[in-house]
Amino acid sequence: MRALWFWAVALALVLAQTLAAQARPESFADLAQKVSPAVVNITTSTVVAANTDTLPMVPEGSPFEDFFREFRDRNGGEDQPRRTSALGSGFVISEDGFIVTNNHVIESADEIIIEFYEGGELKAEVIGTDPKTDIALLKVTADGPLPFVSFGDSDTARVGDWVMAMGNPLGQGFSVSAGIVSARNRALSGTYDDYIQTDAAINRGNSGGPLFNMSGEVVGVNTAILSPNGGSIGIGFSMASNVVTRVVEQLKEFGETRRGWLGVRIQDVTEDVAEAIGLEQARGALVTDVPEGPAMDGGMKSGDVILSFDGKDVEDTRGLVRRVGNAEVGKAVRVVVFRDGKTTTLKVTLGRREEAEGTVPAAQTQDAEDPAPVERDVLGLTLSEMSDELRQQLDLKPEANGLVVRDVDPESEAYEKGLRGGDVITEAGQQSLATVEDFETRIEDAKEAGRKSLLLLVRRSGEPRFVALSLDDE
């Protein structure tokens, strides 16, 4: 019996090893040979202004000061503009010469030279750029059709799938590296980030190059690495092709991006916020402010939770931002919101984000430091009722209302959740506040309704956010 068990285990191990060997490619040579002609090296040059402060730091009046000045003058001086070069990668996406790369590769370049794998160089022009996704679209004019590669569906890339990166690492010329998809849906710092993380070696100079799946389709554009020393340590990031393709289509058609704009400020719904408003599940995007724009015109209000946008569920703010950005400008969409314990469907006609950006002036922060007419400690907060003097000190509009946070107990939950002196609480329990008595009434109402927490709308430097504070210790 033991012998049969032994042979069964041995057979299982052999089968597992066989399956693993079948999944692992013996070589990437055929794939590399197939796609290499469409991968390009990019050299850019930029004229930089003269540096008038080129002398080493030496004591004023020192003989070394004259020595270094004479040395500089003998070598032609440093008072003339000079040209600098940079290297990157890219790939051809059409036979008529459209090329994709990173925006940071060609940004501010005066001249862009494309070097092809099979030899030859061509000058490129910039068709359009998108700094938000770090994508640029270039165009070259060739004597004949160029070899090109196609985009694949990045959503089908699974963690553990084999991928291959190509480019011009550290200026060493065309190079191939292979690895696997290490993670999906990574966010770095951009609004529309959707990065594929890979351990395929990516170094400086690889920026803008393609990340291929095993079918030879581009599933990502190599953009960034995480490294303590500037070299690859196996943590590289490629912008997902499903983000890139939409950007490229718009750059090709318009020379710029045209993203949808809803016109709201939002934050994620946490467990305590969901409990405070009676939402069964912590999901969706909580609307903190509705300035003039499409959402206001469609009837959206501060405190609404967006649960569905254009027929698709909204899990969090990041997902909503990407979905709105991908929507067509001018499209009328249905938005399902949670309001006053029930769902409501709104119809919103989207604007264009690029036109709306920069329309809200940046507010200034000032410290509150005056005695208020009425002051009281509630939920770890020292609150004052609004006055003209406070409005002036906090640089608020004359019509601004609410309660001013004078101080916060450092051992309180309010402090842990980021409330600080100078904040203005404009709503509690999704109702406006004018007096401290209003605030205390909202607390009692929440307790009578069986709530464990109270939802506050807090503004700092004009920017709103919701905070839920526990009522257990009140």
TrEMBL record:
Any single Gene Ontology cellular-component annotation: periplasmic space
Record InterPro entries: PDZ (IPR001478), PDZ_sf (IPR036034), Pept_S1C_Do (IPR011782), Peptidase_S1_PA (IPR009003), Peptidase_S1C (IPR001940)
Protein name per Swiss-Prot or TrEMBL: Probable periplasmic serine endoprotease DegP-like
Span of domain PDZ: 251-316, 347-461
GO biological process: proteolysis
Region (Disordered) location: 352-372
Superkingdom classification of source: Bacteria
Subcellular location: Periplasm
Catalytic activity: Acts on substrates that are at least partially unfolded. The cleavage site P1 residue is normally between a pair of hydrophobic residues, such as Val-|-Val
Enzyme Commission number(s): 3.4.21.107
